[in-house]
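Priority: low. Protein: Phosphatase domain-containing protein. Input follows.
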Amino acid sequence: MTPTPPTTLGVVYDVDGVLRVAPLRRQWGRLRALATRGPHDRRSLLGMQRVLRTVAAPGAEVYFLTGLPIRLARVVRAALRHDQYPPGTLLMAGRRLFSGWLFGAGLEAKRDALERLAVEHPDVSWVLVGDDAGHDPQLFADFARDHPDRVAAIALRRLVDVVRSDSPVARDDSPPVVEAPNGEEMLPGLRAALGLHEPTGEPRIDDWFLTEQERGNPATRLRPWTEGNDVRLRVHGHAYYATLAERLAATGPGDQVLFLGWRGDGDQQLVDDGPTVAEALADAARCGTRVCGLLWRSHLSVFGYHVTQNRRLAAALRAAGGEVLLDQRIRPLGSHHQKLVVIRGDTDPAGDVAYVGGIDLVLGARDDIVHRGDPQSVASGDAYDRDPRHDAQLELRGPVVRDLHEVFLERWIDPTPLVRLPWHVVPDLVHRLPRRGAVLPPPTPDPPAAGRCAIQVLRTYPRRTPPLPYAPWGERSVARAFIKALGRAQRLVYVEDQYLWSADVARVFAAALRRAPQLHLVAVVPRPHADAGPSPAMIGQAEAVAMVHEAGGDRVQILDVENDEASPVYVHAKICVVDDVWCTVGSNNFNSRSWTHDSELVTAILDEERDRRAPADPGGLGDGARVLARRLRLELMREHLGEPDDAALLDPDHAAELVRSRAAALDAWHAGGEQGPRPPGRMRRHTPAHEQVELTLRRRWITGPAYRMVLDPDGRPLSARLQRTY
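Result:
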């Protein structure tokens, strides 16, 4: 009798390679992988959850196979749920923990579990998923040999040899075998092997935004996202400060002004011949507005930090009836980097507004589109920053204002002492700085809907001791949100960033570039000072830039910007636009410090309104181009390229090619002695750090690790670092 061919798919995922506690052999392999760096090292768990969800989408059952004994089922289930794997059934194949699983035994037990599964489900064709660091290649090959018509595909994450071209599993009569160093790069091959297509159709908000579970911080009071918000772009400090000054001047009795900052310079003017930061906030306080702020206390001024400036602003506002706390509740060598102003009215919630982005209340930030620098800073004796500066902020109205109010309040009511180290406590006592904030009322209800944008508030908080009440295990929703959005990118990722330093962050972009062969990455970063010698940070940037170039080739363009007088413009903006659909503006940089170690605040935006200009759906997934995201990208690219309108920039391929040609023309003009008319635009090819820095043994093994410990520290728990997850 001829057996009935399988009619449905099932998935078996060997999870011994993804659990935080792993057999000794796997832990040793993770430590080796952690110490291995370079553009070819793409090993991570990135995208494995999406691999399972994609294969299971047609209705396939998912089984999680492990060599652990049944008594640890609850622990395994909790770990899988914590890491956002889809629901499924556990196959606990082990009997003994220390004498078996811990030392890598369990092949026969797993083989027996697969055999039982095959008998119990004779109509299922299996997709076998695992990695090459344990038993999986042999286990899956044996099962496919014994059941040649019951295996639809084998998917192996490469950990042992990431550059291997042949497969230890594949034979002439074997099912399709897909191998890749991470799930993102595995996904296209697995889709092709199974005949699955990229899903298209009516998009959902959670296709882009993190769900409540995906945020990974159940202690927060923030909602997953809010809808009905209005977003206005305030590109450049000149535009933002003028708007902020006008709104502060309109506050009155019973209103609230709440702000978070990295640094506060009270003598920074908000408008020409207008009030300074200290004057504007103090005037609001004297009029009866409740003015409260949290500034990073900063490290000692002897090391070049700005505790003196923050103390001055705190003292000026205290004298006017306001209250500013200098907050040092951070990890060692960390900082509070969030930048936020929330203004809430006493009687008219429709006037409530919040400002989020990369612009602090500091000297040097009030530049404009001409980029000649902040007039006050250029003329000042304070050399904090006299360079022309490019930055951006968002003005937000609607229900999101309440969530941003909660962000402030969570930190304000944290009972942990603001400072604990003696060399912090004593000076603060001398300067009579408050040790705790006054009681603030709970946030008032949502302001009314004001627009058509959905907004997700994202943060970074490290795991620290004592734990943060609102993020006891830390929060890395900034990193998780970028990972999710880049996993959907198809055509163009446009980035403006102050650093682009970390290989761990670059690995996420590199995986997207390998997964999507039409994807362009255009990144605008600051130009290093010509007289600056090689710095430790260049080693980090060398790793990051080399990794994305190795992945995307000429689809990757790293650029910097100069003004019309050829002076470098310091890019301080923190912006990302993916396929003209999803965009972010915030305080985060693309480095490990911002994704794991310091406090950061970002808003991700999905505009409900579509931009119907061709291409109406750049990514081809049914999302359509969204008005706000496309407007943000086009406004920035028009400025940098000197384009009078949007026509040449709408199509991602055309925009990328125009960037390349304009940058090449300007580079050639400079190389030719600046003869003839200056070509249009301000973008120039950013000289990659690996061309500036010779990676000697000393820099690789001494300077490099020191840079990663001090300048770009990693705030993840060790288990997450070993797994390269967030």
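The chain has three domains: 8-197, 228-454, 455-717. The first strand starts at residue 8 and ends at 14.
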